[in-house]
Amino acid sequence: xxxxxxxxxxxxxxxxxxxxxxxxxxxxxxxxxxxxxxxxxxxxxxxxxxxxxxxxxxxxxxxxxxxxxxxxxxxxxxxxxxxxxxxxxxxxxxxxxxxxxxxxxxxxxxxxxxxxxxxxxxxxxxxxxxxxxxxxxxxxxxxxxxxxxxxxxxxxxxxxxxxxxxxxxxxxxxxxxxxxxxxxxxxxxxxxxxxxxxxxxxx
Length: 203
Hints:
Strands 4-5-6-3-7-9-8 form a seven-stranded mixed beta sheet. The protein folds into two domains: about 5-55, no CATH class; about 70-200, 2,3-Dihydroxybiphenyl 1,2-Dioxygenase, domain 1 (Roll). The model has no long low-confidence stretch (mean pLDDT about 90). The protein has four helices and nine strands, in the order αββαβαββββαββ. About 20% of the residues lie in helices and about 20% in strands.
C-alpha cells in the first residue's frame, strides 16, 4: 500500500484488532492485525526501491535473488477455512476494512469451487472463504489459511514444470489436475498450493 501507517490506523478505527509487535535488532516494525484463525494481515509500503525482505533477511550468494516465474505463475489469492456460521462475519470484515466485494456464485475458479469468493478493489486478488460441511463439528480455533492460489496461463505446463522439480500433486478419482487447475500435496505443516487457470501471467 502507499502508506502503511495510515492504512493501519484506518483499519483499527474500523474495528480491527491490533497484533502487538516484538521487533528484534535490525528488524522492521511492520504493523499487523488479526485475520482468520491465527493468521495476520501485515501493512507494507516498502516494496518499490527495496522490500521488507531486503532488511530482515540476508541473501544467499549462490542463489538468484529474482528468478523468473516458472510457467507464468503469478499471485492469485488465498483460501481460508472459517468457523460455522462465520461467513457473513468474515465477508463483512474484508468488505469493511479492505473494500472486497462478493462474486456471483456462478463465477468460480480452479477445481475446488466451494464457499464464497471475494475480489479485491484492484480486481487482481481473490479470497475464497469455506465453512465446514453441514453436520461437521467445528470450533473457531480450526479457522486457518489452507491454500495459496497461484495463477497459470497453462496449468498443464506449470504442473509439468513443477513436477520436474519434485512438487507432488493430488491425483484421485475425485480430484486431479486439469485445464482449470491443480492442487499440490501439503507443504510446510499443512499449507497447499492451488494452481488456477488465469491468463494474466501469459507472455
